[in-house]
């Protein structure tokens, strides 16, 4: 029995080892007839030491790359590839044929790549310990070698002759040719250049060895130095040195996809030298050129980053491509493709100039050099702002030193200067929120609340042709009535709100399965409404504290449903069936401001500015623009949601009226949350809109400082944010509030203004607080902000 078990174990071990014996094939020379096939696991030939491998690597979930890589480190870093622009599917094969040809072919036998051999008579292939893959003759002469045909990387012992180049990959995981190259020109000048992508020709040089006529050979020696020599071997320019000998470190120099030429080192395992032991077990950057790739300025082209984006240098001196306000990446997975506007550009129709529909947002130290179509000297910033707002072609105006430069799309050569002393700023033109949508007036015909009816009225005024009116109405509904999926459900008479049964919403939420959040009076679930297409919604299930009267509930829901503003979460429908009270809202993909603001990564200053302004506009709308005034009663980060473009959307507005009166005055429930509640709430004073103003003031301080209003982890004098903020303002030390925020530090004028606004909002005396309309005007710059008095007490609201 024991013998049988022994045989069985031996057999199983052999079966387990068989696949691996064919995956990592032996390091001896590969004879005629040898081949590798792309499989689920990397398949390769290794060098004698095992340091390098040649074979197939799967790239992400895509196809396979025939490549050379470092084989003894976890990263398996690729240093050469044959088919970067044409990944092959599983089952593809590279073969050294019996007649001495070396061919990569797909599973159908179609030839994908083969090297240009010098001579004939290939006898074997070999992966060498230097990282060089060779095809050799019987006398071991190299008929082809990868060192003569580099892609984006050079290794120790490699050289580059005149006319040789390294071409950057398109992106970190896309191995096709990209936008930059490192080349030793035929004239002897070593340079970094952009390319006329997707063509191979040079475009703009942004670094040069300045060795025209004398440069002859780029050498990467075994001691880790990279330098340019003259024809006689003398060193003309040292690019990188002191890396350490190759027996201690793996080394590579790469023309990176972002335009930076970088020399990397990685300590070898088992090395005993103290120098190598002190390095981390990872690729470390030893040297890079140029010092700031963001300074690329192209006469034709986009610059370091794509069109309509700008380049910012990270702390590690690598570039980061960003989009300005109002823009987003064309492809988030390919940030160098550039950015697009998230709004309809300004109309050039003189009858409808739309001047009042646009804002200019400050971006300090940001510029898009060249390609100005207007240049004005000895002007104020206000003059430049008006000049751009009045010009439908103007997308950005750069202001600095009394001068302004107008620019239009697409913007190129965008950069953020690292030195704040450079001064100047970009003023980005973006469309304001849609201010044309108003709340309904009491007693008005309910049809006036439907946007389609507005279009009918406009159409009737424009033309008496009934057909044209109907056609226009149909087109508007098709384009703008987003939740078409809701049309199958009955609507509240005269409203766009849909009436759902409890069973419909139970099915939509899969039995109330996925909880998005909960509070003292409701739980929110993710739902999917099914029709010709799926439509994500958030279903708020109110608990039994809600008043039971059908008429009162329907009336309050109707009032909430009539609101329509860019900075409010839209109510789509409701359920009022028996004891079940549910509200159906549009789904906000980026969650709450609380998660965004207090999460692991800090939102940038400009995002926080826009969220603050959007929130203020939404509250002002509830207070000022609806005849049936709505007081939110619970403004806080958890009730500010973010849509797919991170626009602030206020939720839970008007829900105070859906609760019993004796449940609206609580310090623990959803109505009136600790830290955000105005002092008068605790004194049983009459509730006014100034309560929301106080809550917004606290929220604004949180957005400025990127921290919670009450944090016991802070030092004793910093625990209460409002106290600390006022002390910093009084002592003229506002930089402490944004100490770790470079963008905010460069925008201290706005920081001071916003802190002053917040202090006005949190005055203990409600009569001293501004209205939300005035808050918006102060934030937009239409109204000056005076120096606020010191609030007499903050502690009462905690």
From TrEMBL:
This is Receptor-like serine/threonine-protein kinase. It is a single-pass type I membrane protein. GO terms for cellular component: membrane. The keyword Glycoprotein applies. The chain crosses the membrane at residues 454-476. It comes from Fagus sylvatica (Beechnut). Residues 510-795 form the Protein kinase domain. Its main location: membrane. It is found in: Membrane. The keyword Membrane applies. ATP binds at residue 540. Pfam families: B_lectin, Pkinase. Keywords: ATP-binding, Disulfide bond, EGF-like domain, Glycoprotein, Kinase, Lectin, Membrane, Nucleotide-binding, Receptor, Serine/threonine-protein kinase, Signal, Transferase, Transmembrane, Transmembrane helix. It catalyses: L-threonyl-[protein] + ATP = O-phospho-L-threonyl-[protein] + ADP + H(+); L-seryl-[protein] + ATP = O-phospho-L-seryl-[protein] + ADP + H(+). InterPro entries: Bulb-type_lectin_dom, Bulb-type_lectin_dom_sf, G-type_lectin_kinases/EP1-like, Kinase-like_dom_sf, Prot_kinase_dom, Protein_kinase_ATP_BS, Ser/Thr_kinase_AS, SRK-like_kinase. Its EC number is 2.7.11.1. Residues 1-24 form the signal peptide. Belongs to the protein kinase superfamily. Ser/Thr protein kinase family. Residues 29-148 form the Bulb-type lectin domain. It is an enzyme of class 2 (transferase). One of its GO terms (molecular function) is protein serine/threonine kinase activity.
